[in-house]
Amino acid sequence: MLSPHWLPYLPDEAECVRAVRMLNDGYAELAHRHPKRIASYVMLPLPHIDVALREMERGFDQLGCVGVNMNIICLNRSIAETEFEPIYAEMNRRGAILFVHPAGTGICSPFINDYRFRGAVGTSLEDATFVLHMIAKQIPHRYPNIKFIVPHLGGPIPMLLHRLDKQGRRDHPNLAEAPSVTAKKFWYDTVCYGSKAAFTCALEAFGADHLVTGSDYPVLQDYETYRDTFGYIERLGLPQADVEKILHHNAHALFGFEQSGAPAERGIR
What is the pLDDT of residue 263? Predict the structure, then answer.
């Protein structure tokens, strides 16, 4: 699945539209050249809602995109904020897949960025804050037809589910469902730098049916071989049925791909 890590969210609407359309056209053209191996997401020229809705329509109806890709933070604003609601409404109408990715902001925190942990830790904290903001705003509950994919096993979310159900409901007493119920509706990709502790925690928290393969291409190539990016899952001693689901079947089912010769979820992003 093709998508860039950081999207060109720009204050100037015209400039933003030009940049995003160029990306969408390029990725879609590559996907059309290799239809049995690659598919692409449509990227949106945020924070400009009206043109973003038009670009979503173009991506699905003209370019053949299979989902939407958004950064978790847009110009220092969470994409859970009220101004983005029309985007979720349209994705819900379409029953769309939404893949989100950190924007590399270190959650806009000097506690992270001043200590130079923007990449090593800040990205996982962005993943977690996305899930938290979705819970607080009840977006998955209100827009139940959207299928959410969160990278990097959701960051620290797997180990926080029990605490969220206890203390989170105290802080958000009007939630329609327990935070863990919302969090378990998402899919999470397997990028964790081969950490058995992180993977098994997420597996325990979300179940094998809600984990999909992710490559983090090309980032992980700086730290491990591309083979290890996927191969570590086969070395964890999991039941073979779970390994098959995670590596070969979950993404195909989620996207509705044919099992033979179709692109795997985010083999490239």
Answer: 52
